[in-house]
Write a structure and sequence with these properties.
288 residues, alpha+beta, 2 domains, 5-stranded antiparallel β-sheet, 4-stranded mixed β-sheet, 7 helices, flat
Length: 288
């Protein structure tokens, strides 16, 4: 469906770094013609990404991606984008509309159709951390008029990476990733909750910056890795939950807070329109 909506965005050649598997060796370069083992076509040749770019080649199409002969390229793309926006759009859009009605729109942004989306991007700078879970918190918020603070931090999002168990003993303490892990999460939903409770004034730059500089924290946990074989699928509770490696692994990551001006179209079937992201290096994501 995404490919139908954005046909100009496609798989590009890249190095797999330490993320190889039983068929692809670490540090191999793959592209859209790389064989997708172990999947074979009827003629016994292996499928490739190019072969599977359209599900029609697999013998079926989704209702949202089916294309009749009389539909133009532009019409097909717009229909696919509308389907993505309707089926998979975040609830932030609906919440902003609802809170703008129940609160003054100034509590959200200057306009009920325009707001600032806030997110955190994580980049793993080295290979010395295997499977991990990075959990972001809002810590130390006031809960009553007597300036008492909540001892339980508010969980605002999680990023994770699972590595194959066969990689656990790799000597990667000094290795620099060829293609570092990057992940991002939106925390706008959490900020909307905090606006509703009066902890944050609005989604505007100054209000959110001031709040996050004091309250945004992180915990990094080691987690159970992906089993190397189908015979080793069970993890112990300790492996699943992991241990706190924040102090030892914090410097292996770079965490950056971003803000992105966003516009909600009048047509509900159209996706939210995002502007250019802006980094906020002054907001430090520090350990709890």
């Amino acid at each position: 469906m995404y490919q139908a909506a954005y046909p100009d965005r496609y798989f590009t050649s890249q190095n797999v770094d330490v993320h190889g598997n039983v068929w692809i060796e670490d540090y191999s370069t793959v592209d859209a013609n790389t064989a997708l083992l172990p999947f074979r076509k009827a003629n016994r040749e292996y499928w490739t990404t190019n072969d599977a770019r359209s599900t029609v080649n697999l013998g079926y199409a989704y209702p949202e991606t089916f294309r009749s002969n009389n539909v133009s390229d532009a019409e097909h793309i717009n229909a696919a984008k509308a389907a993505v926006a309707t089926l998979y759009g975040s609830d932030t859009r609906a919440r902003i509309a609802a809170q703008s009605k129940s609160l003054s729109s100034a509590h959200i942004s200057a306009s009920p159709k325009d707001y600032i989306d806030w997110s955190i991007k994580a980049t793993k700078l080295t290979n010395d951390v295997g499977s991990f879970l990075a959990r972001f918190y809002v810590h130390g918020i006031r809960v009553d008029e007597n300036d008492k603070f909540n001892d339980d931090p508010l969980d605002v999002g999680t990023l994770t990476q699972l590595m194959p168990r066969s990689h656990e003993n790799h000597d990667t303490t000094t290795a620099t990733p060829v293609r570092p892990y990057e992940g991002s999460i939106s925390i706008t939903w959490a900020l909307l909750d905090l606006i509703k409770t009066g902890h944050v004034r609005s989604l505007d730059y100054q209000d959110v910056e001031t709040f996050l500089k004091t309250h945004l924290k992180i915990v990094i946990l080691s987690v159970g890795s992906i089993p190397s074989t189908c015979d080793d699928l069970q993890l112990t509770s300790t492996q699943s939950e992991g241990k706190d490696i924040t102090r030892t692994s914090y410097k292996s990551f770079r965490f950056t807070v971003f803000s992105t001006p966003s516009h909600i179209p009048d047509d509900d079937s159209q996706a939210v329109e995002y502007g250019e992201p802006r980094a906020h290096p002054d907001i430090a994501v520090t350990p709890v």
